[in-house]
Specification:
The chain has 120 residues and is mostly helical. It has helices at 8-20, 25-36, 40-52, 69-85, 89-97, 104-119; strands at 23-24, 56-59, 62-65. The chain folds into two domains: 8-69, Orthogonal Bundle (Arc Repressor Mutant, subunit A), CATH 1.10.10; 88-120, no CATH class. The protein has six helices and three strands.
Length: 120
């Protein structure tokens, strides 16, 4: 499993890319200035850091993702369950639902997921 990690601001910046890709680095710089008050150099520094992590790529000024938002958060979720609950999804769900009640819709959705998994 790749070690993709982002801080809160990097995640918000990544969302801009995922929502607008392919996006030019110039457009990304403009949006970053509007949203975060960043200078162009800050945008390019953060972009380079995320490209170095293998999450995005900047090819001749066009920025695209290497991994999708869904894939990124799937990896983060797996890593969290693995590190915090020794990889046990039931242990995670037990802890999660100890303080938060699931709605009937959420329970039904989980049942469907399990049924689909069992069906292959």
């Amino acid at each position: 499993m790749n070690d993709y990690q982002m801080g809160v601001i990097e995640s918000r910046f990544a969302d801009i890319i995922w929502e607008n890709e392919p996006v030019s680095s110039t457009e990304l710089s403009k949006r970053s200035e509007e949203m975060f008050g960043w200078k162009k150099s800050t945008t390019y520094t953060v972009l380079k850091r995320l490209c170095d992590k293998g999450i995005f790529q900047n090819n001749k000024g066009t920025v695209t993702s290497v991994i999708s938002r869904q894939e990124f958060y799937s990896v983060q979720s797996e890593k969290f369950v693995e590190e915090t609950f020794d990889g046990s999804l039931p242990a995670f769900l037990t802890a999660f639902t100890a303080r938060k009640n699931l709605s009937k819709e959420e329970v039904e959705y989980l049942r469907r997921m399990v049924a689909e998994y069992e069906e292959g």
